[in-house]
Amino acid sequence: MRPGVEEPAGPQAEEILPTPVKAGYALGDHTVNIQLATVSLFFLYFLTEVAGLPPSLAGLVLLAGRAVDAFTDPLMGRLSDRTRLRWGRRRPYFLLGALPYGVTFALLWSSSGLSEPLAIFVFYTAVYVANTLCSTVLAVPYMALLPELAVGYHERTSLNTFRTVGVVLAILIAAAGSISWRTPLRPPAFRPSGPRAFSPIAVRTKEGQTRVTASPSRACSARSEPKKPCRACLLAA
Question: DSSP 3-state helix, strand, coil percentages of the chain (rounded to 5)?
Fold first, then answer.
């Protein structure tokens, strides 16, 4: 402290942000993390079990999005810092990325209408990369806005606490949703058949020993047309 100059100390010197402002700011990261958590928990399952991609190609879809994200995040931060508009440096990007962000997120779970694995791979890679770019346009300026809203240490900590609560709630919602969505979203065309349609059950023999055999599931027993017995059927017999 300089001699003869009084400096305000403690939280009284900080501008206190209203609670609705903090809650509104937390909703931003809440929305972004619903997308991030849903993709992390469910998208790979969707690509392999619903879209029909081989696991190797499905993994490359996620890798392509993360690789693009590694380069675009620093560039977006630099662009946002250098923006000089009357609406501010951060807010214009919220308006720019919000609508495409929602559209591309919906397209992640849509049917490509394609049959070739390579074509399906290209479709979902393009959509996922586009969604990742939209997320970058929103999330990077959003995080940079925090120290501009709350200048003081205590208010910045409080605002970040609200944001963290929004993130945790988003992850819990995504986790609960991914569990309940797996069965309804799996169309009959992609349900397992043949050996995959059998579930192991334990059978006790006359000698008192327990062996594991296979029991046909509904997908196999409901077939109307006669087919050659699969290996699992022969083993079960």
Answer: 65, 5, 25
Q: Is 105 exposed, middle or buried (0-12, 13-18, 19+ CB in 10 A)?
A: buried
Token pair in block for residue 72: 């675009």
Q: How far apart are CA 134 and CA 30, in angstroms?
A: 16
Q: Which positions ≥6 away from 33 have C-beta within 8 Å? A: 166, 167, 170, 171, 174
Instruction: Tell me the C-alpha to C-alpha distance, in Å, between residue 205 and each of 118, 199, 208, 213.
Output: 48, 19, 5, 11
What are the Cα distances from residue 8, in Å, to 13, 110, 150, 178?
6, 57, 17, 50
- Environment class of 2 (CB within 10 Å of its CB; exposed 0-12, middle 13-18, buried 19+): exposed
- pTM, two decimals, is 0.68
Backbone angles phi, psi at 210, to 5 degrees: -110, 125
* Residue 206, helix vs strand vs coil: coil
Domain residue extents for the chain: 17-188, 191-236
pLDDT in tens, 111-137: 888 889 999 999 999 999 999 999 999
Give CA–CA dist 197/218, Å, rounded: 8
- Options 3.40.50.300, 1.20.1560.10, 1.20.1250.20, 2.60.40.1890; CATH for 17-188 is 1.20.1250.20
Q: Is 194 a residue whose pLDDT tops 50?
A: no
